[in-house]
Amino acid sequence: MTVFLLRRLAGLAVVLLVASFLVYGLLYLVPGGPMAFLLGNRSGTPEQIAAIRAQYHLDDPFLVRYATWLGDAVRGDFGSSLVYRQDVSALMSARAATTTFLVGYSTVLIVVVGVAAGTLAGLRRGRVDNVVSAVSSAFLATPTFVIGVVLVIVFALGLGWFPVFGPGEGFGGRLYHLTLPAITLSLGSAAFLARITRASVREELGREHVETARSRGLAESLVIRRHVLRNASIPVITVTGLTVASLIAGSVVVENVFALDGLGSLFVRAILQRDFAVVQAVVLVLVTAFVLVNLVVDLCYKALDPRMSR
Q: Boundaries of each ABC transmembrane type-1 domain copy (predicted)?
């Protein structure tokens, strides 16, 4: 297990290194380079341009600048925001809790609803299967922002069950305020996971080892739990991992619909305001989160089937 984990960590470190190089380097490929971001709409005098180049070490070789930036990023220092005139790390930490809670809440809903509905549809043919398939198809075909607007109109403005804006305070307050955003973010992914779970369960039910277990007189509940659900969980974990990673990007839309001040909304504003330090930091954090999610998926594979580590 230790060798497997070290091998995965080494591979992920390489991925993060390449991703950080791309994140830092791509902004230097835009017309005008970093000076276009630093000057904004101003032309700048030669003295101002020289001062800016000296402040941001733009006259140093590119690899030297990248190494300095990467070293600071590893220590949690992403520089200062050009727009907010604040430390980028402080800006992100103030908003990371909202995005983390939203993604975590949505993940729980996706796993519980998606796996339960898909398993039920896979085990019970007929009306249950038809209902789950129809509902999942409807949610998959509906854009996230449409679901969010409908939920706000019905459950916030119409019935008054949930607040419209804000992330809330404390665990209970966040749970209450982020219920509608989490449902909005999770419905489409839960529907997709339900379809994958249904197909995987159906496939396992038709395998020979399941028929053999039944012929040996094992209880149906034991056959389902040990021989069907365990093997069916491997593709489900794959889809769950990719889905959770995509939630981080999908939260941008939901945060804007519900006026949540999270990393997604900060990222959108940074792009519009050409705040390149914030853009670099948020992208690097999102890539890191995606890589860590994939590491968790690999560890789940190892726990379910040790042969996958060979």
A: 96-297
pTM over 0.85? The answer is: no
Average pLDDT for residues 260-266, to the nearest whole number?
A: 80
Segments making up each domain of the chain, as ranges: 2-74, 98-309
What's the average model confidence in pLDDT over 236-254?
77
Class of domain 98-309: mainly alpha
Contacts of 287 (CB under 8 A, 6+ apart): 16, 19, 20, 23
Partners of residue 87 on adjacent β-strands: 80
